[in-house]
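May I ask for an example protein's residues together with how it folds?

___
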Amino acid sequence: MKSLSYIILSFVAISFYACGNQNSNSGQNETEAIQVKTISVESSNDSDLSFSGMLSAEQMSTLKTRQAGYVKNIFVNVGDEVQKNQKLIQIDSEELNAQKKQAQAAVNQAQKQFDLAQKNLKRFERLRQSKSVSDSEFEQVELKFQSAQSGLESAKQQLNQVQSMMSYTSIKAPFSGKISQKLIQVGDMAMPGMPLLTLSSSNQLEVKSTVSESQINSIKKGQNVQIEIPSIGKVYSGKITEVSNSSESSNSQYFVKSIFTEKPEKALAGMYANISVKAPQTNSQYENASIRIPRFAIVQKNGLQGVYVVGKSDTALLRWIKTGSADEETIEVLSGLSANDKIIIDADGRLYNGVKIKE
């Protein structure tokens, strides 16, 4: 009887221990799961495409000089309208001035020698006709004339070279436009190749943009666009004039150029613009789909980009992605995510592949 009581008491104790151990393990597993916040990935299939760009002068030139010298005069200021061939800067070069005087003196001397040789040659031509000089004497005079003629031509070429160099000391506008930058002051030393002024066409603006590979096939040359300039609160009509067919040298971004088809009042080069274009209709409802996610959800590791998604059995899974265009808050996902995927945007603990999570 005592043995039976002992067995029953032992069985009850083991049962209590097993239940307690099970509850303990259950609490432990629940503690290991990390609390997370998630959002579902959504794709946009709007027929309107939009991308950003920057206004730029259609024609722009940085004016330089090929001749060293001190800046004597600057005849324009930033914002001034100038006409083609208008004089903008005068550079004073003492060395060139000295070379010009020497070259001019050499021309004057060579001219005198030539005039004398020519006069002497004509005299000997008359003497030769009357057979008053020998052929050898005439040849000597003729050779002196040819030498004087060559000397005069050489001196004139030297003067032309100096005058050509002197033309680089007078900087003129290559086209009509507006002075957008002044990079030198009166008294500064101008060196060959040094930027002096920047000239931009004042009434011809264009928008330069880059778009992702998910958008480029929906953008065609000649498409009409709407160009919004937020800084001045204006929207203008425009047209796409250039679309690049390669992104090898631009980090998977394709170049697109748009022009205004109406005059953009108050718009200035350097302003940002938003471009809207109607994408062509496609047979697939997903062909133009675009996925965008919050930028802060991106994980950077070893130069790669990824996001944590909710995997099977409520675990975190790091998914590598390829990204495209971005704005201040969101970034486009070109590959690696699908619609209705759940991405983790916040967690109470450290995330890694396979860690248990709960929402």
In short: The chain has four helices and 24 strands. The helical segments are 2-32, 94-129, 135-167, 213-216.
